[in-house]
Design brief:
It is built from 18 helices and 14 strands. It is of the alpha/beta class and 440 residues long. It folds into three domains: 200 residues, Rossmann fold, CATH 3.40.50.720; 87 residues, N-(1-d-carboxylethyl)-l-norvaline Dehydrogenase, domain 2 (Orthogonal Bundle), CATH 1.10.1040; 134 residues, 3-Layer(aba) Sandwich (Rossmann fold), CATH 3.40.50.720. The strands form three sheets. It has a six-stranded parallel sheet with strand order 3-2-1-4-5-6, sandwiched between helices. A six-stranded parallel sheet has the order 11-10-9-12-13-14. The chain has a two-stranded parallel sheet with strand order 7-8. Helix 16 links the parallel strand 10 and strand 11.
């Protein structure tokens, strides 16, 4: 069985590689020739733990190929996955320009039946737009070639994508065609043998499922951050509250960690898109609007704590920032809280020295040379007036207090992820600020 995956970004690359790992013949296609050439050499365009080794193994086994040639990729393919970007438009909607460009290219080149699968995160109604785009090109060609369109949303967590794909909580497929369903079921058969649930539904429901899932997770994050801010004002400790409500099986303990808000390529974009869909249909998504407002507020919480601590202008102060990616185990800095915190401090006239294990090159694309990037976390502390922890990389979890106090000008830590023990900080002579934690 042969499949084609169009787009070698995060979703496309993981999807194609993991399908190859299950024994399918996979061609990953991208119009970016430099990216394709680099992939053939083993140079990764993204950081995802274990992905480089998986790609190398499947290239060697000849199950995985990379190309810029649509004709070669589509020839004899049973299915083609559209996994290109859907960036947020100015009005919050998902921009389908790239998705529909791929659809038209497919319509221009197919010669036999194929299942066209939308893997990109797309709003309800996109599959129908893809179907129309393909059919319009076929009509211009004056040919009658059968095809079906299906929706197969991804549920991958950056930093754990391979495990999520190979051992999924669920596989959701939207289709209105028995023929397409049969092909998709055969494609996912290795997962069925391992007992992973395959859920078939109509296309619109599948498209909505992806947005609803991300919106629910984003809601949990903004909810606990709202509670954290209230905890600070009432004398409660959000970490204890989180344990108390997280033990309720109806709530669970995932995605209820207080911090500086969510970021990345999914939650911000998908919440905005679902809000926009609601407006399009005349129904305001009031809860999600609040989720977005809380998240934007939360990204600046540390800045408020910093200015409050110093009690005066922070102009000229130097701050060490640990963590630039929106979460650990990824180099993704899209919508990262670090960008907001650093931008606000720069506006206030501060000097920033930052370290992240893998995301510094990506971060430079947005902030550039406005800040100093250090070779390790402790170099960033030299002569710093404060340490700001934004991303909870595992290597940041244990502090060398002796070295910290020796290197820093002032001994104060602003913990944006609540990973440090306030009592231990106090015992070691460190002034500590967390999120939703009252420390005497």
């Amino acid at each position: 069985m042969k499949i084609t995956v169009v787009g070698t970004g995060y979703v496309g690359l993981v999807t194609g590689t993991c399908f190859a790992e299950t024994g399918l013949d996979v061609i990953c296609l991208d119009i970016d020739a430099d990216k394709i050439n680099n992939l053939k050499k083993g140079v990764m365009p993204i950081f995802e733990p274990g992905l480089d080794r998986l790609i190398e193994r499947n290239i060697e086994s000849k199950r995985l190929q990379f190309t810029t040639d649509y004709q070669n990729a589509l020839t004899e393919s049973d299915a083609v996955f559209i996994a290109v970007g859907t960036p947020t438009g100015e009005d919050g909607s998902a921009d389908l320009k790239y998705v529909l460009e791929v659809a038209r290219e497919i319509g221009r080149l197919i010669t036999d039946y194929i299942v066209i699968v939308t893997k990109s995160t797309v709003p309800v109604g996109t599959a129908e737009k893809v179907r129309i785009s393909v059919q319009e090109v076929l009509d211009k060609r004056n040919v009658k070639i059968p095809f079906d369109v299906a929706s197969n949303p991804e549920f991958l967590k950056e930093g754990n994508a391979i495990e999520d794909f190979l051992k999924p909580d669920r596989i959701v497929i939207g289709t209105d065609s028995p023929r397409a369903e049969k092909i998709m079921k055969r494609m996912y058969n290795p997962f069925l043998l391992n007992g992973h649930p395959l859920i078939f539904m109509d296309i619109s429901s599948a498209e909505m499922t992806k947005y609803a899932a991300n919106a629910m997770l984003a809601t949990k994050i903004s909810f606990i951050n709202d509670i954290a801010n209230l905890c600070e004002r009432t004398g409660a400790d959000v970490n204890l509250v989180r344990r108390g409500i997280g033990s309720d099986s109806r709530i669970g303990n995932k995605f209820i960690y207080a911090g500086v808000g969510y970021g990345g390529s999914c939650f911000p974009k998908d919440v905005k898109a679902l809000i926009k869909t609601g407006r399009d249909y005349g129904y305001p998504m009031r809860i999600l609007q609040s989720v977005e407002e809380v998240n934007e507020y939360q990204k600046a919480v540390l800045v408020s704590k910093i200015t409050s601590h110093f009690g005066q202008s922070i102009k000229g102060k130097t701050f060490a920032v640990w963590g630039l990616s929106f979460k650990p185990n990824t180099d993704d800095t899209r919508e990262a809280p670090a960008a907001v915190v650093i931008s606000e401090l720069l506006k206030a006239g501060c000097y920033i020295k930052a370290f992240d294990p893998v995301a510094m090159e990506e971060f430079k694309q947005s902030i550039g040379g406005k800040i100093e990037y250090t070779k390790d976390r402790y170099e960033a502390l030299i002569d710093a007036d404060g340490l700001i922890l934004i991303t909870e990389w595992s290597e940041f979890r244990i502090l060398n207090y002796v070295l910290l106090k020796k290197l820093m000008k002032e001994h104060v830590v602003f913990d944006g992820r609540n990973i440090y023990d306030p009592v231990e900080m106090k015992e070691n002579g460190i002034t500590y600020y967390g999120i939703g934690r009252n420390v005497e």
